[in-house]
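Progress note, sequence design subtask.
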């Protein structure tokens, strides 16, 4: 198996995915008390849930960076 070289933006997509997963887990944990009837978490826990959107934006920036690099490569070849 040969390893493919990482393209520009791959790191951002990976980092965005990790941040998104952290935000998704935080959302599940934060919403659990609503269904279990226990005391809700402090407001900072709800702020951590916003990492889902941040992760999505980071991954989107990585995709856009990859697209720009592919366009530059295509222009230089032709």
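Output:
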């Amino acid at each position: 198996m040969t390893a493919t070289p990482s393209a520009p933006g791959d790191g951002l997509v990976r980092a965005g995915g990790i941040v998104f997963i952290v935000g998704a887990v935080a959302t599940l944990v934060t919403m659990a008390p609503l269904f279990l009837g226990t005391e809700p978490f402090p407001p900072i826990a709800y702020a951590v849930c916003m990492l889902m959107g941040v992760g999505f934006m980071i991954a989107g920036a990585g995709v856009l960076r990859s697209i720009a690099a592919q366009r530059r490569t295509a222009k230089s070849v032709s």
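The chain has a mean pLDDT of 89. Work on this subtask will continue into the next period as scheduled.
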